[in-house]
TrEMBL record:
One of its GO terms (molecular function) is flavin adenine dinucleotide binding. Residues 3-108 form the FAD-binding FR-type domain. It comes from Sorangium cellulosum (Polyangium cellulosum). This is Oxidoreductase. Keywords: 2Fe-2S, FAD, Flavoprotein, Iron, Iron-sulfur, Metal-binding, Oxidoreductase.
Amino acid sequence: MAQGSAKIRIAHAEPIGQGARLLRVERVDGAELGFAGGQYVIINSGVTLPGGKLAKRAYSMLSSDAEQRAVEIAVKRIGAGPASNVLNDIAVGAELEWSGPWGKLRLPPGFSGRALVIATDTGITAALGIARSAAAAGAAQLDLLWLVEEGDYFVPEAFVRERLPAAARLTVAGGFLPVGHPERPARACALVGDHVADGPRDAVLCAGDGAVIYPIRDRLASLGAPEGSVLLESFFNNPLKKSL
């Protein structure tokens, strides 16, 4: 799997939802990207921050890894955030630097078992990449649970459903508690418990709010999930970073 820095080109761009943009990007040199569904890349916006560092941000690839020449990413405009604003305004044909792919949130090659993908908030991008790639690989069962505050948050539900393969079953827990709510982890664990009432999955992959997905992992372990079968990728509120 290729890793390192490379130049990318914006091949296509379109608005999605409220204050978000879908970008299709490709390497300038035409090489394959070498990614697996669920992984992310780090894009250099070219903006220098007040402290002198460049504004670089991670974005999950939401397209299937069956296509390696170009990928889709979704970018939510976040206030005055330098990277999100650059990517929401950048012109088709423009070039930027990126590095990657990175991340261990991925199913093993040739996975054919029963998988559950859980996303909170913006973690839906990684979940889409995993689900689309798993379906292409022939997973026996694929369920996707999305915990989200509002239906138009980041990307619309219709956008997600349009890109999911027919074999995937999507459950949207709309009206979910907001980030930082003290009851958010417990509510998420209850929803996940109901979702696996018919037995543990061969693999569970979780992306999004670290304050939620780590308790979910513990809950699944208490319900009999095999050791090492639950993988996590914190988009924010990573408890491991806070403990350093």
